[in-house]
């Protein structure tokens, strides 16, 4: 996600980060910037004594790093990138500048100098706009620095050496990494934390805003006027041009182009990113790079039996996407890749990735039928409904079904804790997860509520595969599996029924039928935990006619109305306190026709209902069985 509008503005420029620092790459990537990484070869050996202050030294080094990359790229292709970003982080204590230690002894003398005192961390940043004209490179440098003050506690000799022996200090200014083990040495921080880690993101965004909207307008249109060559910015940095190249063109010709169709171009291009991810997962690139030392492209290619050139391009794409980091020593996984893209990552989504890779969204395969004939992409070739993916896959090969189970399992595992803790369910003694598949949610419910016994109720052909998905550890005995069809068979007895990510796959009639069955099975005082992606009200209104036959996300209001009619009282909704990952994972389109108003429905919804009072209410619920909500 790109929060900062100025960063969004850079999305269609060729941006290069002239730094090998994995931390800088991570910070800028998290901010949504897209860039290539070309580490600078500038030797950080400027004579420090010539600079009036430590930050002046950091700023000049940052500038020289960026300019070296701009010149090298221009020489190589006679075409420089649009923007090159350079940065340099130093630690200053008592007028002394500390950079990266050269060896352990050097690290020791730096850290003992910092012990028990406050020091400053300065990061100098240079933003170089480039323009290649007639084989010549024109550059336009803006620069600034940020200061953060850090206080260390008193460090014992033992602690110092233990820390040095961890190896962490060696590639970091001042010999410590505040974001990792080095955080233990730190007593207080005043200022921007990311500045210490290597890149002052907040100040960087402000600087970009100054450059691109010099009059302080929020309006993202290009600025109409800009300063001439030789201007100086507020930090005393040289700046020859206030606006970027785009603005210059518009002011020269007097022609104002239409707003840049950023979102559209992103969509056109976005499949490439997915393709790179799919390919890397299929080839097990992230498994290969897990835990080991960084590998060069040629070594990865050798292990995969692939071409060095193609592998290099794939690995670079993964760097740009934030799944790999690249240094002089080679490629290695980012934390995201270790966690989500390796086969055995704690929250591996590899199964989901492979499923989507092997089963592209049907709309792309049969766009004509979806658009022209109004056939739902989940339907069979003649428009007949094949049911939710899990059931539809029963008609397919064992391999397809297993792939789908892995996909559903990985997603359920990622979101299970948010779901299990969205409401306090501790008063329930037993639960039945209808269509609970591999039991990913059931096990987390059992872990969160040690008194709860959970039955996973699903089709026999699904349950025959669950053995491969069982977690180790305590409380697995709280969970049991029972084969059955929630439309055909009697529902197992339970105090709480769970219907998670089921309803969106069914049309209204079936949704009503299933919830009516749950309402009838519910004991007085029993409950229902309904988990689904919710459509916003507008999408809901537009989807109304289409969804009756097709399924798709429904709004909170529709579910609330239906549940009340079925006799549930105390209907409550909660959007999970979701991480961006969770939101993205949940908020995906079921079918394009069900969401004509937008591809990404706004929120995930969890609601719990409890049958109000006993029998009359349940009777009412039964009498509603045939009516559509
Ligand atoms: C103080 C501190 C520094 N650092 C890092 C940030 C920088 O990467 C590094 C300082 O060295 P730099 O020379 O600024 O950067 P670099 O050598 O890592 O990368 P490049 O020169 O290619 O841009 O120290 C931390 O990661 N944590 C910290 O707490």
UniProtKB/TrEMBL annotation:
Residues 369-382 have a biased composition (Basic and acidic residues). Residues 265-343 form the O-methyltransferase dimerisation domain. PROSITE patterns: SAM_OMT_II. SUPFAM superfamilies: ITPase-like, S-adenosyl-L-methionine-dependent methyltransferases, Winged helix' DNA-binding domain. Residues 216-258, 365-390 are annotated as: Disordered. Its cofactor is a divalent metal cation. Keywords: Hydrolase, Methyltransferase, S-adenosyl-L-methionine, Transferase. One of its GO terms (biological process) is methylation. CDD domains: AdoMet_MTases, Maf. GO terms for cellular component: cytosol. Residues 394-568 form the O-methyltransferase C-terminal domain. PANTHER family: BIFUNCTIONAL DTTP/UTP PYROPHOSPHATASE/METHYLTRANSFERASE PROTEIN-RELATED, BIFUNCTIONAL DTTP_UTP PYROPHOSPHATASE_METHYLTRANSFERASE PROTEIN-RELATED. HAMAP family: Maf. This is Acetylserotonin O-methyltransferase like. The gene is ASMTL.
């Amino acid at each position: 996600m790109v929060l900062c509008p100025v960063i969004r503005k850079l999305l269609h420029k060729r941006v290069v980060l002239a730094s090998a620092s994995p931390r800088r790459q991570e910070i800028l990537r998290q901010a949504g910037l897209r860039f290539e990484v070309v580490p600078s070869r500038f030797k950080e050996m400027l004579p420090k004594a010539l600079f009036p202050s430590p930050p002046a030294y950091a700023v000049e080094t940052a500038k020289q790093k960026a300019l070296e990359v701009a010149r090298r790229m221009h020489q190589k292709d006679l075409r420089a990138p649009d923007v090159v970003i350079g940065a340099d982080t130093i630690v200053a204590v008592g007028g002394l500048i500390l950079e990266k230690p050269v060896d352990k002894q050097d690290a020791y003398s730096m850290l003992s100098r910092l012990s028990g005192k406050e020091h400053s961390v300065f990061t100098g940043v240079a933003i170089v706009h480039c323009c290649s004209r007639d084989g010549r490179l024109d550059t336009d440098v803006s620069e600034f620095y940020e200061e953060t003050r850090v206080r260390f506690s008193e460090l014992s000799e033992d602690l110092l050496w233990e820390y040095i022996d961890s190896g962490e200090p060696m590639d970091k200014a001042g010999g410590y990494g505040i974001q990792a083990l080095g955080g233990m040495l730190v007593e207080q921080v005043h200022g921007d934390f990311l500045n210490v880690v290597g890149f002052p993101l907040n100040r960087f965004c402000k600087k970009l805003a100054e450059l691109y909207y010099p009059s302080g307008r929020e309006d993202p249109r290009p600025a109409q006027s800009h300063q001439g060559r030789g201007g100086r910015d507020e930090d005393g940095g040289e700046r020859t041009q206030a606006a970027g190249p785009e603005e210059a063109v518009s002011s020269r010709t007097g022609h104002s182009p239409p707003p840049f169709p950023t979102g559209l171009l992103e969509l056109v291009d976005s499949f490439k990113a997915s393709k790179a991810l799919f390919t890397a997962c299929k080839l097990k690139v992230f498994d290969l790079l897990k835990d080991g030392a960084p590998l060069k492209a040629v070594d990865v290619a050798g292990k995969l039996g692939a071409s060095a050139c193609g592998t290099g391009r794939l690995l670079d794409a993964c760097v740009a996407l934030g799944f790999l980091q690249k240094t002089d020593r080679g490629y290695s996984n980012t934390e995201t890749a270790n966690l989500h893209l390796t086969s055995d990552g704690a929250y591996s989504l590899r199964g989901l990735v492979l499923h989507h890779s092997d089963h592209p969204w049907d709309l792309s395969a049969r766009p004509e039928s979806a658009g022209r004939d109004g056939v739902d992409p989940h339907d069979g070739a003649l428009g007949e409904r094949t049911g939710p993916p899990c059931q539809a896959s029963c008609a397919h090969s064992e391999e397809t079904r297993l792939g789908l189970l892995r996909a559903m399992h990985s997603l359920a595992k990622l979101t299970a804790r948010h779901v299990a803790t969205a409401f306090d369910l501790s008063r329930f003694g037993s639960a039945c997860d209808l269509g609970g598949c591999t039991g990913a949610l059931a096990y987390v419910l059992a872990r969160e509520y040690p008194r709860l016994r959970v039955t996973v109720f699903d089709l026999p052909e699904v349950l025959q595969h669950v053995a491969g998905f069982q977690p180790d550890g305590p409380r697995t005995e709280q969970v049991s599996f029972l084969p059955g069809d929630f439309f055909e068979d009697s529902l197992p007895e339970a105090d709480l029924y769970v219907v998670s990510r089921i309803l969106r796959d069914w049309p209204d009639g079936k949704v009503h039928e299933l919830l009516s069955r749950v309402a009838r099975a519910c004991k007085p005082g029993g409950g229902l935990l309904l988990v689904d992606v919710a459509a916003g009200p507008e999408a809901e209104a537009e989807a109304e006619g289409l969804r009756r036959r097709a399924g798709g996300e429904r709004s909170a209001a529709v579910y609330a109305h239906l549940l009340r009619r079925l006799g549930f009282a105390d209907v409550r909704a909660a959007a999970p306190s979701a991480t961006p990952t969770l939101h993205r994972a949940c908020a995906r389109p079921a079918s394009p026709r069900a969401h004509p108003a937008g591809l990404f429905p706004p929120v995930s919804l969890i609601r719990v209902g409890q049958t109000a009072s006993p029998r009359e209410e349940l009777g009412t619920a039964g009498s509603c069985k045939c009516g559509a909500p």
